[in-house]
Amino acid sequence: MSEFTFKGKDFLLDGQPFRVLSGAMHYWRIVPDYWEDRLRKLRACGFNTVETYVPWNLHERREGEFDFSGSLDIVRYVETAQRLGLYVIVRPGPYICSEFDFGGLPSWLLRYPDMRLRCNDPLYLEKVRPYYRELLTRIRPLLCTAGGPVIMVQIENEYGSYGNDKAYLRAVADMYREYGMDCLLYTSDGPSYWMLNGGTLPEYPCVANFGSHPAEAFSLLSDFRPDQPSMCGEFWCGWFDHWGEAHHVRTAEETLRDLVPMVDAGASFNFYMFHGGTNFGFTNGANHTGTQYQPTITSYDYGSPLSEAGDLTPTYYAVQQVLGKLAPLPDIPVENTKKAAYGTVTLTGRAPLFDNLGKLGPTVHAAAPECMEELGQDFGYVVYSTELRGPSEPLPLVLEHVHDRAQVFLDGKPAGIRERSGRCDEISIGLAKGETVRCDILVENMGRVNYGPKLFDRKGIFPGIRLGQMYHFGWDMTSLTMDDLSGLTWTNDVCDDGRPAFLRGTFTVDGTPADTFVRPEGFHKGFIMVNGFNLGRYWNDRGPQKTLYLPAPLLHEGENEIIVFETDGYDSPAVRLEAEPDLG
What we know:
single chain, alpha+beta, eight-stranded parallel β-barrel, 9 helices, 16% helix, 30% strand
């Protein structure tokens, strides 16, 4: 059992000054078989602590149903860190931002229209409590006070950039205490007075998050809270990418320019990110400028000291050299994982989406189109289907509040695309007397907003769909989470007819599998599954990311299956497995 606290400018571990040298790595963004590899590299670099957020939206995808298995086994992750000699900082939210869908909040919260998020709203706190009960009862035995490695637990996350409800922050802290979190609690916010004033509580220490100008940031933090340690809760050593933007790159020299002054000042810090990992599946979040919606890409490489694939970068070695001057580096051998180029994979099977709707998810009927959350769905796509009957003069098809990308098909033929921010094709429909047309609208959830005042971000089309000023009623809605593709009916005809389709192929791995990177060249937009695991989205027409990371533990010796879901048509039914990533 240990005690971690602070006195004046020092953190204290069992009464002795302790400097927190932490790196952020999120367990769910790393396949579990690689947890130890990444944590070993953190320790070998000279860090003494690992920090992780906890994603409520993955642990409770459906209200009342909790999952702490596999890649969500936080207990195993923390115990692995302890075995390697690392302390742990846990940031349970309930909101985490992290460029993650809805900032880590579960989408089913949006089914409660009267709920007020991230404040002292009784309904919201009522939904937080069961999650905390499930999570914190698992964390409690891992606290340093119980002999575990967890030394700090964060209250909410960067709350001052969103609100200033002190009663809410205390309600969160009170739940922590109720469930036995008798370790050091803290808050973190940006280095500005308004953020610190809104997001902190006087009875708990606060840290500042920034990526540059450490002297100015620590000066402001010291002025705001003079009698506590100086700590950067998130040292942004890189940055994340949005689709359609250039890939962010930060050199080792730029990182050291801001790291060395923190080291020289004796401050504690947490690298965000030390290893970013991957937004597997559809878990990426999005930003919103107020006028522009900006979804985040699949890779969360972040320009970190460890690359998305866990490789040692020049920044890693530069940081290791700096930290090696503070204390002897542990003798832990580390190396990059093996990479392989498995070559071109020809896709020989095709399953058209609209021919397989009934095998992919439930269909419900309603008068007006419902949003994804009303359908009980978190990630993926929704197909809205109806029949239009003439006679009617040509009228514009109006899709109200598309969140986030809608593709319209009339009698199975592409008619246009509407995007929340971007492409907006004009679609007009006119029908002769007695004429009918089937209208299918495929809507993709590109990621819920994860930061700022636009958090209440429902997906789909709402409140309605019009022909001119006339609302059209009577819609079938099919939810497509894409969790299970085993029921698809495949054909050997792989010719592109412009409709969304799944394409399937196999490739052989001889010997022990290695990491590889999937390049869907010739495809435009969709996602890729390998052996039933969703690697994430690609969007070649926007970039910057051009390959998807495929970790070796997802492969097995012998035959492996790859499925590509393409929404916009393809030039050739083949992908390449390469040994190097291409993030733009």
